[in-house]
Amino acid sequence: MGEIIPFVFSLSGGLVLDKSSFEIAPGSAIELENYEPSIKGGYRRINGTAKWNSNIVPQTSVDSEKVLMSAIFGSNVIAARGEKIFSGTSTGSWTEIDTGRTSAKRYTFERFNFNGTDKIIFADGANHASTWDGSTLVDLNGAAGSGSGTAPSAPQFVAIFKDHVFLADSTTNTVTFTAPFNENDFSSGNGAGAIKIDSTLVGMRVFREELYIFGTTRIFKVSGSSSSNFSMKPVARSIGCISGFTIQEFAGDLVYLGPDGLRTVAGTAKIGDVELGTISQAVRPRFAEQTNPDLFESVVIPSKTQYRIFFNKEGRVETQTYGIICVLKGEGYEFADLRGIKPSCTDNDYISGIETVIHGGFDGYIYEQEKGSNFNGLSIEGIYRSPDLMMGDAGILKSFSHLLANYSPESVIDANIFLRYDYEVDTAIRPDPYPLSVSTLVSVYGTQVYGVGIYGGSSDPVKRQPVEGSGYAIAIRIKDDGTNSAPYTLRGFQLEYSQGARR
């Protein structure tokens, strides 16, 4: 055997689908499913999901009706299903707070406080918007005002801007705002008003002291300090938003789904405009596969600087439901595929000081993300595949002797390493998989129960695995589909090989 040559690479860059192996950095991936690019480095197998409350959100008509709203409010979750709205904690039964939501669609909501009382406002696109303060529900029908002005009867989108409530009606493309500090006063004489836009309205979001109004073909922003000086200017005249349920404040920007993928509305103002940019070029094929705006949902996990977008279909089971993870790291945005979570609605906030991410299910339950090691009892299938690695020369045959895998387990894991040679052509060698597993958590003294952890070990083990096979190129693929396999982080690899003849 000739001289042993080490080839070392760390994992960074995320999923890349728009380049060939000759162009992709070794640490990027051409498959990355249910591994999240970590802000701490490497690719981490994601956490699971679990029922937030073991009781189904009640529904008197169709048991299969999906949850239309899951909103965190204090220590409670406000959940809508069918024609009813409920409030509940993570334990106990759901308490009914509204029964008359005829033909309700997906809800939007905002939390606010005008007069010292915390409230949540929500709209469903078919009924008057309503507020809830923990004890009293109020329909926003204009009863608190006097003089001219009419409350919108079926707004779908809500926002709180400069102490006014803004309600958007996507059927008339009109945004109505209330008088200041009074969510139920629509009188123009008291400071209420309306704005008409010339695009099909899909969402609103307040960002850096301005209100952004998203249409399917245009984007606008409202500036000013009160109704006396509100003004609206176009942000983009030829780019719009596919779905308002993709709009999220994320890592200092507004992120939304445009016709060419994920875009940001940057906070840096240009002359009379705002800089727009596409961030998802690396995974653009994924967005090209999704065209129905009724299928989109999204949520942000701030502690991980992570944005998740989901592509859902009513008849598609959880294991066939796809999404994209987007993470902002120092070197830019990184992406991964997400499969197995099927939200009909989402929210994130803090409950008792703990960051909490929830979603409503198509099965009528409220689920918590970032919980446990499986998807409510179903296994999480994690897949990583490196680019085809040529070690700088695609024309030299390499004979491989060892693979070193650097990874950080958090508990028991059960995964397999597959080596794939020469671009996986039919004639290429396919060795049996090698185990990447931890049956007992490696622990620092004082961090585990005696007899459970291995004391004095490292939290970043390096597994050195003898391997066999030769080829002009090699790829590393890891698959993890154990029901109870805990999260862990893949950090990097070292391939040891000797050179052979040139072809």
Number of helices: 1
Give average pLDDT, whole number: 90
**Which structural class do the helices and strands define?**
mainly beta
Helix content: under 10%
Oligomer: single chain
Q: Any guess at the CATH architecture of one domain? A: Sandwich
- As for the CATH topology of one domain, it is Jelly Rolls
Cα radius of gyration in angstroms: 26 Å
Number of strands: 42
- Describe the global form: elongated
Low-confidence spans: 442-459
CATH class term of one domain: Mainly Beta
> Distance between the terminal alpha carbons, to the nearest Å?
18 Å
Q: Roughly what fraction of the amino acids lie in strands?
A: over 45%
Main beta-sheet strand count, sense and barrel state: 7 strands, antiparallel
What are the defining features of this structure?
503 residues; Jelly Rolls; seven-stranded antiparallel β-sheet; elongated
Molecular structure report:
The chain is mostly beta strands. The chain has a domain at 5-31 and 382-502: Jelly Rolls. Helix content is 1%, strand content 47%. It has one helix and 42 strands. Strands 1, 3, 4, 34, 39, 40 and 42 form a seven-stranded antiparallel sheet that branches. The chain has a five-stranded antiparallel sheet with strand order 2-33-41-35-36, with no helix packed on it. Strand 26 and strand 27 form a beta hairpin. The longest helix is centred in the middle third of the chain and has 5 residues, at 284-288. The chain is elongated and about 90 Å long. It starts with a strand and ends with a strand. The relative contact order is 0.16. The model is unreliable at 442-459 (pLDDT under 50).
